[in-house]
From TrEMBL:
<keyword id="KW-0813">Transport</keyword>
<keyword id="KW-0812">Transmembrane</keyword>
<feature type="domain" description="ABC transporter family G">
    <location>
        <begin position="56"/>
        <end position="118"/>
    </location>
</feature>
<dbReference type="InterPro" id="IPR027417">
    <property type="entry name" value="P-loop_NTPase"/>
</dbReference>
<protein>
    <recommendedName>
        <fullName>ABC transporter family G domain-containing protein</fullName>
    </recommendedName>
</protein>
<dbReference type="InterPro" id="IPR043926">
    <property type="entry name" value="ABCG_dom"/>
</dbReference>
<keyword id="KW-0472">Membrane</keyword>
<dbReference type="GO" id="GO:0016020">
    <property type="term" value="C:membrane"/>
</dbReference>
<dbReference type="GO" id="GO:0140359">
    <property type="term" value="F:ABC-type transporter activity"/>
</dbReference>
<keyword id="KW-1133">Transmembrane helix</keyword>
<dbReference type="Pfam" id="PF19055">
    <property type="entry name" value="ABC2_membrane_7"/>
</dbReference>
<dbReference type="InterPro" id="IPR050352">
    <property type="entry name" value="ABCG_transporters"/>
</dbReference>
Length: 133
């Protein structure tokens, strides 16, 4: 599965797109291959390409390599910013990340909380955007 996925991505890159959308590009890859793929995507971004990807279970190394994170709950934004800023942001709302916990797992756990917590996070983000705007 991983070999075919890399070939498909490489084939699409031959068209030299300015925007690259990838849905779960690391699924089915071992951790070394997943990190290598994300490094290639990062190099493309550094070369001026816009890279947008969804990854539901990133390793902490992959999570920290992204420039921006948009975190959705029920299709609504609950965080947008630098990935590691998410920990502090959710901490201010009483959702502290446990020590030595993968930050990607922490934010995904928040997204998968019960409806009450998801509603709280969506409302807090909306209120923060209104204050900033």
């Amino acid at each position: 599965g991983g070999e075919k996925k890399r070939v498909n991505i490489g084939t699409e890159l031959l068209t030299n797109p300015s925007v690259i959308f990838l849905d779960e590009p690391t699924s089915g890859l071992d951790s070394t291959s997943a990190v290598a793929l994300v490094e290639v995507l990062r190099e493309l971004a550094m070369a001026g390409k816009t890279v947008i990807t969804s990854i539901h279970q990133p390793s902490s190394q992959i999570f920290q390599s992204f420039d921006q994170l948009i975190l959705l709950a029920d299709g609504k934004t609950i965080f947008m910013g630098k990935p590691l800023n998410a920990l502090a942001y959710f901490g201010t709302m009483g959702h502290q990340s446990p020590a030595q916990y993968n930050p990607a797992d922490y934010v995904m756990d928040l997204v998968n909380q019960d409806m009450k917590i998801r509603e709280e996070l969506k409302e807090a983000y909306l209120q923060n955007r209104m204050i900033e705007g």
